[in-house]
Design a protein that fits this description.
- The complex is a heterodimer of chains A (535) and B (253).
- Chain A has 535 residues and is mainly alpha-helical.
- Helices cover 78% and strands 0% of the residues of chain A.
- Chain A has helices at residues 3-19, 33-44, 51-87, 94-113, 116-127, 131-155, 159-167, 172-204, 214-223, 227-256, 265-286, 292-295, 298-312, 324-355, 361-365, 376-392, 395-402, 410-434, 439-446, 451-485, 492-502, 506-534.
- Helix content of chain B is 37%, strand content 25%.
- In chain B, the strands form 2 sheets. A 6-stranded mixed beta sheet of chain B has the order 6-7-8-3-9-10, with helices on both faces.
- In chain B, α6 (150-164) runs parallel beside α7.
- The chains are: A mainly alpha (535), B alpha/beta (253).
- Chains A and B meet through α7 and α8 of A and α2, β6, α4 and α6 of B.
């Protein structure tokens, strides 16, 4: 058996093992869980379309969009500056290289390691409830993620044109302007657009720290058991995310092709993006009356200082992060969190593997397995719709729904994460199948293989390694989000984080954050190691 | 006169790991000469050009450029007005318009803000248009460089060198990726422009016939040493076949 097969086997065993962490026997459903589920499912087809609900939905849609735009616009500035610094392209001495890789990469890594909702919560605790808590939280988490990728993109620019500029006497900054930036602009833009789509979902869940938007309305309607309204807001969120998804994929297509006319899609997009950013900030300052200067008042500064001091345990006789008992508990919760993430990625991978083939365009056309059935396109469309549906709803919202059906615990959290990631994995993996080189498949077909044999011998071996890469990559994302689904009682570090925050046990919060960062770091290393094995 | 010498190379040695890319090479290049570097692959042509371009440092020996030792050129900006380089391709930023790729030749004299402004409103536009006119590309000023053919891209690189105005031009396989007609076109232009600008030109080439046709002096390198160094008309078929043949022989040993 080769290394790759061993790895597959190893991953499957880990997943099976993690299932043992769920307490299956104690009854997972609420007493009325099933009937709630039926009610919820029924109301999908009867969303509340009354004028007052729609009005509220449009207002919340704008709020969600506005927070996302405001957050991502600051994130872009952060990512641009830190990305350049962290790429090492400006470094001219060993010290500069050390600075860019050690320090700036480290800062970006720290920013993105902590989930935006945690940032938001910390900001609310430090400066009080203000739109800026959400905006800054989004800006930091997304600035970190974008900056890291910007740095990698800049680093991968072909060397030759850069050397040519250098030899014609251009300075470092001039090389940046005439070399690195134009060469990477379209890549940077596509990635920023992709991240904007994610920011919309994050913005929706900012409701959890008390800010308005679609997430807030979903939460409100859920608590009043008005499922028809829940679905109205849900559909608004899905359409918003889907629309941005379409915009970004159209833009990506156009960026790759040369275009001469002035009035093209790219220019229109640029104008639209700029107007959106301007409108958002105007709205923040005028309508929301969010005054950025009061934010930096002496009162807030004192408050923030006090908050940081209590996080650090200053003045505390027995801070949690120095107590063995607290550590034991925190490590147990970390283990639980790890198990949740593994169950979640396992479930979403199984879901993806079961649906991915019919969800690929080339399978629907019949070019993949060389069999064409009348229902292919129908199945293709249905699965793609489910993918969009599943990935447009943030994990936390899935979790909110699920805790009405399942008892809070590991499984509830894992399912919420699995539902969201199923759609993402499905989409990514279907694209892998669509990009498959079909010549080996044709060859097999001509030697008499049936459709299912084609899948087993021609398709699976070439797509599986890529699937695993995506699965591992999503696992890294899931471990960061596991803490968030814990907020609604889905177990692990998140649940404890929420409790400690509401009891003002700030040294506990610090301990949880330390464990969280260790966990995230460990999973990143593991996943990177596994991915290297596959290559 | 020392001032008439563009490059003086003294006992240059460059070692990569186990292999001597150049061993104790000495050369004198007068101003205004046009030189073709020929020789089998791995003979040290690119290493020599990179040394002259100051992109790598020799392990032993010295180079002086225009009467001044190489190490006395403190900034790349200062050096860029002495020596300019054209490589076989990939010199351009594909996503940037032709005019900005050409104006990059002026960056050595421009401030950061002027270069930033120029990306919005092209500065010294006439200079660039003029240079593009001289290489026959005046109709492609605002085209993106990536949409140009290989030959056209190489002409843009020539236009950049034209406005960079170095005293010597180094060309590393300038026509390796072009078809014969385009290759002759570029070489004709390269040598013609160098003559007009009274520049020193050193080009490495694979094709001996191009070397004889367009260059006055031919230096053949083999195993990091000068195999022969003659005026183009004195290079004979026998010399050439021994230059390339012996290499084959060695490989079989």
């Amino acid at each position: 058996m080769n290394k790759r097969n061993l790895l597959f086997l190893f991953l499957i065993i880990i997943f099976a093992f993690s299932l043992g962490a769920v307490q299956w026997k104690e009854g997972l459903l609420h007493a009325g869980g099933i009937s709630t589920l039926v009610q919820m499912l029924k109301s999908i087809f009867q969303p509340d379309l009354s004028w007052s609900t729609l009005q509220l939905a449009f207002e919340s849609l704008w709020l969600t969009l506005a927070y996302a735009v405001a957050g991502i616009s600051i994130a872009l500035v952060i990512a641009f500056i830190f990305g350049i610094l962290a790429s090492g392209i400006l470094a001219s001495s060993p010290f500069g290289t050390w600075l860019s890789f050690g320090v700036f990469r480290g800062i970006l890594g720290f920013m993105r390691a902590i989930h935006e909702l945690i940032w938001a919560w910390l900001f609310v605790a430090a400066i009080g409830l203000s739109p800026f808590a959400a905006i800054f939280a989004l800006a930091i988490a997304y600035g970190g993620a974008l900056g890291r990728v910007f740095a990698d993109i800049l680093k991968d620019v072909p060397k030759e044109p850069i050397d040519a500029l250098k030899s014609s006497g251009a300075s470092k900054l001039q090389i940046l302007l005439y070399g690195y930036l134009p060469a990477t602009a379209s890549n940077l833009l596509s990635y920023a657009m992709y991240r904007f789509e994610c920011a919309l979902r994050s913005s929706a869940i900012m409701s959890f720290v008390g800010l308005g938007g679609l997430g807030y309305q979903i939460q409100l309607s859920l608590s009043e058991l008005r499922y028809n309204e829940v679905w109205t807001y849900m559909f608004f969120l899905i359409v918003l995310v889907w629309a941005v998804d379409c915009w970004s994929s159209l833009l990506r297509n156009r960026l790759d092709k040369p275009n001469k006319s002035k009035l093209n899609f790219i220019n229109i997009s640029a104008v639209a993006a700029v107007s959106l950013i301007v409108a958002t900030w105007l709205y923040m300052f005028v309508a929301e009356n969010a005054d950025i200067f009061t934010l930096f008042s002496a009162k807030n500064a004192a408050h923030g200082q006090k908050f940081i001091a209590s996080l650090l345990g200053i003045g505390e006789t027995n801070p949690a992060f120095l107590s063995a008992g607290s550590w034991k508990n925190a490590l147990r919760l970390s283990y639980e969190t790890l198990m949740i993430s593994i169950i979640a990625i396992g479930f979403s991978s199984i879901g993806m593997l079961l649906t991915v083939i019919p969800a690929a365009r080339n399978a629907a056309e019949g070019t993949l397995t060389l069999s064409r059935k009348w229902y292919n396109w129908l199945v293709f469309g249905m699965i793609r719709c489910i993918y969009i549906f599943s990935r447009s709803v943030p994990e936390l919202v899935w979790a909110m729904l699920i805790v009405y059906i399942l008892k809070p615990g590991i499984l509830a959290g894992a399912l919420a994460l699995a539902f969201h990631n199923f759609g993402i994995l499905g989409k990514l993996s279907a694209e892998v199948v669509e990009d498959l080189d079909l010549r080996p498949v044709r060859n097999l077909a001509s030697s008499g293989a049936t459709s299912s044999q084609l899948l087993l011998y021609g398709v699976l071996p070439s797509v599986l390694p890529k699937f695993i890469t995506y699965i591992l990559y999503r696992w890294e994302v899931i471990i960061r989000t596991t803490i968030v689904v814990g907020f609604v009682g889905a177990g692990g570090l998140g649940q404890q984080f929420k409790l400690s925050m509401s009891w003002f046990h700030y040294t506990d919060v610090t301990l949880i954050l330390i464990c969280y960062l260790l966990l995230v770091g460990m999973v990143d290393l593991l996943s990177e190691g596994c991915r290297r094995l596959i290559k | 006169m020392a001032a008439e010498r563009m490059f003086v190379l003294n006992n240059l040695t460059k070692i990569y790991g186990e292999m001597k890319a150049l061993s104790s090479l000495s050369l004198v290049v007068e101003k205004g000469e046009t030189i073709a570097l020929i020789g089998p692959s791995g003979a040290g042509k690119t290493t020599l050009l990179n040394l002259l371009a100051n992109t790598i440092k020799p392990d032993e020996g010295t180079i002086s450029v225009d009467g001044k030792p190489m190490q006395e050129y403190k900034s790349t900006k200062q050096f860029a007005s002495k020596v300019g380089i054209i490589r076989q391709q990939f010199d351009l930023i594909g996503q940037l318009e032709v005019i900005h790729n050409v104006l990059a030749g002026r960056l050595k004299d421009w401030s950061f803000f002027k270069s930033m402004l120029s990306l919005v409103i092209p500065q010294e536009k006439n200079l660039a248009v003029n240079a593009l006119d001289r290489v026959g590309l005046s109709n492609k000023v605002f085209e993106k460089a990536m949409n140009l053919s290989g030959g056209e891209q190489q002409r843009v690189a020539l236009a950049r060198i034209l406005i960079q105005k170095p005293e010597a031009v180094l060309a590393d396989e300038p026509v390796a990726s072009l078809d014969p007609a385009r290759a002759e076109d570029i070489l004709y232009m390269l040598t013609k422009l160098a003559a007009e600008e009274q520049q020193t030109l050193i080009a490495s080439l694979h094709s001996v016939s191009y070397a004889k046709k367009y260059f006055k002096r031919i230096i053949a390198l083999k195993s990091g040493k000068v195999y022969f160094d003659l005026p183009a008309e004195e290079v004979t078929e026998e010399l050439l076949s021994s230059l390339y043949y012996l290499e084959e022989d060695k490989r079989h040993e």
